[in-house]
Amino acid sequence: MIIPVTEANEEAWAELCAALWPEVGKEHFLQERASGNLQNGYLYVVDGEAVAFISLSLRHDYVEGTASSPVAYLEGIFVKPAFRKQGIARKLIEFSKNWALERGCSELASDCELENKTSEIFHKKLGFEEANRLICFKMNLKE
What we know:
The protein is an alpha+beta fold. The protein has helices at residues 10-20, 26-34, 88-102, 117-125; strands at residues 2-4, 41-46, 49-59, 71-79, 108-109. It has one domain: Aminopeptidase (3-Layer(aba) Sandwich).
C-alpha cells in the first residue's frame, strides 16, 4: 500500500531517506520536512512496515531533456534490500506517473550519478530514457 508521509510516519520515512543518502543523515530530512520542504513523500507499507519510499516534486525550471513545464521529478526512490525484486519500485513508479498526470505534467524526469550503474539500469528498466550526461563544475571564491 502506498501512503503519504505524515507526522505519524515521518520517522520511518527519514530512516529510508538516510539509507539512500547516508551522507546526509536522518535529522536533515526531518528538519527539511518541518520547514515545509520535502512535502511530496510517499511510503510503501507492507504489514505495517515502511519498506520503501518515493519522493516527488514539480520543477518549473528547465529540466534536462524535457520540453514542457512543469515537469514531475523523481527526487528519490529506495526499497529496503530484503524487499527488492518484488515489484515495489515498479508500483512506486506507476504511482509517480499518475501523480504527475494529476498535476498536469506530461513528463516525468529523474537523475543519477554517472557512476551509479545500478540506478542507471533501474531507470532504463522502468521506461526512462537517457536525456543527457553532464559533469558539473564549481569554483570556491572564498579561499
